[in-house]
Structure formats: structure tokens, C-alpha cells
Amino acid sequence: MRVVSKLTPVRRALILYESLSGNTAQLAAVIQDLLEEAGAATERIHLRSFLDLSYEEAEDILKPYRTIMIGSYTDDKHLPPEPLEELMDTHTLSDKQVAAFGTGDTQWGETYCLAAYTIARHYQSPFSVLDIEQMPSGSDQEKIEKWLEAISDD
Ligand SMILES: Cc1cc2nc3c(=O)[nH]c(=O)nc-3n(C[C@H](O)[C@H](O)[C@H](O)COP(=O)(O)O)c2cc1C
């Protein structure tokens, strides 16, 4: 039996995600569910909605959080997807720590989940990248939990 209270040391996390066909949205929802089961306070926002806010409104949302989890799909046309690029151009997240996650398709070889790795590199994430093949399934649960266990607000 899983002891959810020990799942993660994160007490509070903002989850921003970009998704076209739903896989990364689903992964963001699974991450949120696991965090909430573990007693963390979370907010999950589609990146496009976040970017529609004024700079001041967006910074107000970021303010209470030390840990920002950012997720994206990868496609071959625009790397990283444009909303991610806009986020990286607009918000330095200099007083935050970023944990990156993404979904992709291993058939793409070297660019597998490249957008998530790009986010991690840009924001100098101290954590490993969570990469999941397509839609997250039950067999990914352990990998997602292990990734969360390694993230702390400190
Ligand atoms: C045109 C196209 C290009 C893609 N290129 C890549 C790629 O370079 N690397 C990768 O890991 N996945 C690639 N994928 C797979 C998607 O990233 C993957 O299906 C992802 O889970 C989609 O996420 P979403 O449902 O959140 O939009 C590509 C998919 C499409 C349709």
C-alpha cells in the first residue's frame, strides 16, 4: 500500500502545462492528484491561459510558490512550442525552482521529450526531467511518484 503522506516533500506547487491532444494535460492532472493526496496545495493552469494574463497578474499567481512544475509536449515544427518560448522570454522565475515534465514519442529518437529538457535547461532545474511516452498509464505511476519524491521546496 502506498503511504501518500510520504510521497513528496513539496508543500505547495504551481503546475503550468501546454498540451495539444491531451496527453500532457492528463499527466499534469495525475501530478496534481498525487500532490494533493500527499497534502500539498496546488494550482494547475494551462499555459495559454496563464500567458493571457497581464504580466502583473501572472506574477501575482507565481508569488506564493517556490516550486513551479512546467510541462509540455514536443513537436518537430517549433521547439519548444511557442507558449513555452513566450514563458521563458517573459518570466525569469529567478526566485523559483522549476521541475520539468513532458510527454513525447520515443519514435522521434533524439528529440524525445526535447521541450521538457529545454525547459529544465533554461530554468536550470535542479531536478530530473519526467518524460512519459504519450498518454500516462498505470504503468507510469511508479515513475511519476519517484519523480515527485525527489522534489522538495527547500
Ligand atoms: C507532428 C508531430 C511531431 C512530433 N514530434 C515529436 C518529437 O520531436 N519528439 C517527441 O518526443 N514527440 C514528438 N511528437 C509526439 C508528441 O509530443 C506526443 O504525442 C505528445 O504526447 C503530445 O502531447 P499532447 O497530447 O499533450 O499534445 C510529435 C507529434 C506530432 C503529431
Automatic annotation (TrEMBL):
Protein family: Belongs to the flavodoxin family.
Entry keywords, A to Z: Electron transport, Flavoprotein, FMN, Transport
Necessary cofactors: FMN
Name used for this protein in its record: Ribonucleotide reductase-associated flavodoxin, putative
InterPro entries named among the record's database cross-references: Flavodoxin (IPR050619), Flavodoxin/NO_synth (IPR008254), Flavodoxin_CS (IPR001226), Flavoprotein-like_sf (IPR029039)
Purpose: Low-potential electron donor to a number of redox enzymes.
Domain of life: Bacteria
Alphabetical list of PANTHER family matching this protein: FLAVODOXIN 1 (PTHR42809:SF1), FLAVODOXIN 2 (PTHR42809)
Domain Flavodoxin-like residue range list: 13-152
One MF term in the entry's GO annotations: electron transfer activity
SUPFAM superfamilies per the UniProt record, alphabetical: Flavoproteins (SSF52218)
